[in-house]
Structure formats: C-alpha cells, structure tokens
Design a protein that fits this description.
The structure is a single chain. This protein has about 650 residues and is α/β, with parallel strands linked by helices. Helix content is about 30%, strand content about 15%. The strands form six sheets. It has a nine-stranded parallel β-sheet, with helices on one face. β1, α1 and β2 form a beta-alpha-beta unit. α5 packs parallel to α8 and α10 packs across α14. It binds beta-D-galactopyranose. The site of beta-D-galactopyranose has 10 residues, from loops. Beta-D-galactopyranose (GAL) binds next to loops.
Amino acid sequence: MPRLAFGADYNPEQWEAATWKDDVRLMREAGVNLVSLGVFAWSWIEPRPDAFDFSGLDEIVALLHESGIGIDLATPTTAPPLWFSHAHPGSLPVTADGLRRAPGSRQAYCPSSPAYRERAALITRRLAERYGEHPAVVMWHINNEYANGNPHCWCENSAAAFRTWLRTRYGEDLEALNERWGTRVWGMRYSDWEQVIPPRTSTSRLSPGLWLDFYRFSDAEHLACFRAERDIVRTLSPGRPVTTNFMAGALRWSDYWRWADEVDIVSNDHYLASEDPERAADLAFAADLTRGLAGGKPWLLMEHSTSAVQWQPRNIAKTPGEMARNTLTHIARGADGALFFQWRQSAYGPEKWHSAMVPHGGEDTRIWQETKALGKAVAGLADVAGSTCPPAEIALLLDYEAMWALELTDRPSADLTYRDALRTWHQALWNVGLPCDLVRAPVPGEQRLLLVPSLYAVSTDTARALQDYVARGGHLVVGPFSGVVDSDDRLHPGPYPGALRGLLGVRVDEYLPLAAAETVTLDDGSTGRIWSERVVPDPGTEVEARFADGPAAGGPAVVRRGNVRYLATRPDADALQRLLPAWAAQAGCTPPLDGAGHGVEVTRRTAPDGRSWLFAVNHTRHAAPMAAVGVVPAGEVAVIRESRAPATQPHTPRTQPES
Ligand code: GAL
C-alpha cells in the first residue's frame, strides 16, 4: 500500500491503447500511486462466455508496474456482460411490481441468482489466478458499491433464498415467524413456508416485520456475494488487503457495521450535493462515519470527484481549491489517501460530463493544474499515513436497523427520519467545532457524551448497552420517539417509551407529530420541529424546558434524570448549536481545538510515537485566526506538524500554488 494513496478509478477499456502510455506519464506527473483497475471490465476480459482475453489488461498492468503505480485490482462483477444477462434472464433483478429490469446497464443482477454467483466466482478466480501474485497488485476492490442500483430483488430466486434464510432465522418454526411478523392482523397467517414471498406489491400494506426481515435478507445476500469473491481472492492473492467501496454517507440499505467486519480495509465513496450550501458538513459526516466503521483505524477514500458530477439536476463545478479542501478533509478525518472517479474524463457514455483528474481539455485546464498541486500536497504529507484521529469525547449512535424501522411507511410522521436527526446533530457539532465519532452498540467506553437520535426500534440488548453506558458514568441524550418497538416492529410492553422507560425516567402519554413546516416554541427560547410528545416525568426527573405552544403546550420538552436527557421534540439547528455545547461541557468534554467552528474545521491525527498533525480547513471567505499559524487564508488548508518529536519544523503546505 502506498503511504498516502492518491489516484483514481482507471477505465482503460474506454480508450485506444495509444492513450495508455500517456495516461501513465500523466499519472506520474500528478503523483498518482494507486488506481482501481477494471471495475467495469468484465465484458472486456471475457467478451464471450469462457473466451477470456487478458491481453489488454496484461499490458496495462505491466505499464502501471513499470511506472511504480500500485493497482487496486477490481473484480468486475458489478457489470455482468450482456451475453450473460441474455443467456440468464432469470438473473436480472425484479421490482416489487414484478417488472424484470432489462439488461443494458451496470448492477443488472440479482444477488441471489445462482447463475450470477457462479459466473462472478469464475471471473474472480481467473483474475486472481492471473494477477494474484503480481507485485503491482497491492489490494483488491471487490465489485463496486454493493446495493447501489439493485438493493432489493423480488424475483423467484430471491423468494426461494428468502425462505431459506427465514427458515434458518426462525429455526424452521413457522409459528415463530407468524408471531414475530404479527400475522394475526388481517388474517395473514402463514400455514406453509411456500406461502412466504418477498414483500411484492399487493392490494394494501404488508407486515412491517416482513419488510424488516426482507431488508436484512437483501443486505445479507449482497454480503454473501462479497464474501464469496473475497475468499477466492484471499486464497489466490494472500497478503493483499481486500475491500469494497461503501457509500456510507447515503445511509441506505447496507448495514455497514456488518460489512466493516468483513473487509480488510474500509473504503468509502463520497460525492457532494453540489448545490447544498452545507456540503462541507456533509462530507465531514461521511468521513466521520467511515472512520467509525473502520473502528478508528485508517481508511481509504475510494471515490470522489475533482469537480462536477453528471447525475444531479444541476452539476455545479467545484470552486478553485474546493477539491483540495475535500481531499484534505477526508485525510484530516482519518483517510490514508483519496482516489477520484475517474482518471480520464470519458469521451462518450452517460458519465462524459462527470469530471475527472484528466479533463476533456487535457493538461491545459484548471482541474489538471489543481490536481497536480494536490498530488504534491498529498505526497508531502506521506508521514501522516498510519496515524489516527484520537477518539472523540462525543459520539452519535448509528443503528441501521432502527433507521430502516423508523423509515417504514405507516408511522406517526414521515418527517421524523433517522438520517435527518443524525445529520442535523452532527452538523450542529461541526458548526461549533466539536469532534464527534459514530459508534454502534454496545457503546465503546471512551465517550463522555453519547447522542442517540430517535431510536424508535431498540432491541433489549441495545437498551441494556445504553444502561451500562450510563452506569459507567456516561452522559446520554436521547431523541424523541425512542425505545418504542423491538427489532420486529412490535411494541415493547408497558407505556411508551417501552424499553427505555426506566432509563429516561418518563412516561409518554401521547405522541403528537406536527404538521408540515409547523414549529413549536420551548420556554428556553428554542424552536422544535416535526414532533412533540405529551411527557409525564417520573418523580425525580427534572424538567429543563417546556413546550410554550403547540399540541403539548405546557408539558415537558427536555427532561433530565441524572446524566440522561430526553428530548420530546427535534430542536432546530440554532437550538442544537446552543444546547449541544452546553451538554458537552456538563459532560466534561474538552472545548473545541483552537480556531475550530463556523466553517473552519480543525482536527488532529496522532501517531503512536507521539507525532501529531493539526489539519485546519478553512471553508470560509475570510482568513481564519489560528494560534499555530497566525491565520489560515480563506479557502485554504494548513497542516501543522506539531513538533513533539525532536527537530521537526512546523510545516504548512498550501492547497493551492502560492501566487
Ligand atoms: C459512483 C460509482 C462510480 C461512478 C460515480 C460517479 O457511485 O461507483 O462508478 O459512477 O458514482 O459519480
């Protein structure tokens, strides 16, 4: 593995061989040291069934090797060739409405298709046999963004696999399944396993238990595909780390805590919503989440863009310096390198308007010049590799299953989403410069303050983990509509908030969601959004703020019992920026690093030998004061090598050429 990786997805099959030499020359010029090769190259290397042609790939691998560029070799199984899809139409995914997706694009496969799995294993084996011991192959990239495009499939293969999965989950006990899914409702009891089908579109609603198991099953099927390829590669290419690129920030269908346990190095893709004024905070969220998934160890940014993407309604170019800020923010937050999609901007096809390291205009372009300068800056930070961000004192709990459960239909409010809470809480901390980790239950011991956004579905294990955390002296803040149901969406017994009632010290009499755009005022001046509740505090539970208006007017809005707070509404961004720092201070958290907050990110990476680096990323239009360097100029990044090891000079590479 290179020290800090810098590079891109490389798709040489889109170009004539004459371009390849030029590619490699330019890669060297830009400081590229790692490329993900062959992500979509299946039909290139197996143009007809069993007719393998590795000549092009051989040439490229040799060229990259000669130039000292490491290869992150991809299994191309995200893009089965058309000959495969036409020969096996049953391998194509089917929608909930029974519509079979046509071949013609990537991800056109059902992960439960035996034919797909067989051919995916074969191409993986052939690649690993041929290149597994090649010195240029430094890591493996399995498939691409699992579950993007084909997260769920409702076909017959899936139905059969789903039944098998359920029979294992419920120990062959169909009555147990009936019980967990609550099939007494509407008389939908199963009397034979064959009656169990995926949640296909029906006349009315389906059991939430069915949906949740289907989501778990679908994720497990993708993961099984990953494992099968990974195991082939591990056998034939020992010693090389195996990864697959996550889409952590999207918070959708992959329970990445499970995935993270299966990869050798966590890697992530992140794209900015180009019109989002808060896009830098979104990037920080994705990076913090990826670091959390990696268990705090270094991770790799597998894809981002040098400038615009092509798949948003308006694809705004990155402003000068933004690409460097993005890249260095990922590194500041624990990435051991950053790669782009893609190396050379396509000349045709759907992604030709997606930016790349080498734009259509070639070397005489702003993007290329900035790319080269960035390559130099990243190379200058090589010694950062392997260091880590110290654990944050504040953490956000992320539970994918709770997110799936909250975001099913037939909830009191469609506005009360899980991702909204995670994102707004993280962003509030980002705005005030307080570092935050994302964690899963059971909660690691280091945190002083744990934030738990609406944990609507909570298992008894997770409820116990929260109790243990508080018993160890941790401070806890729990968002509204938490503790209500178990992992199968069945009410916990007793009054709300069910499994968390004792811990939170309240009884909720009634959930009172707000109308769209309605807000409520609290008597401490805060504004609440989306939600309110009629809360009855237990004796000994203190009321810190009350609803001044709205459906729960006069009732408690923020309550506290010892180190535990419960919120009966979603405070808006302003309120969070006031409340979270106050709660953090009460929990004994250290204040933000010098200069951090309000558009300036300041983070630290440390090495076990005592060396450390401060990264200051100034997203604002004004110079930001920072004691260590005087100021960080507008739009720039300073990296301060803190001189704890002897004879180390402070070092401040600029992200843009000095002018
Ligand atoms: C990613 C994908 C890449 C490329 C990129 C464009 O989701 O993995 O192959 O399509 O989007 O932004």
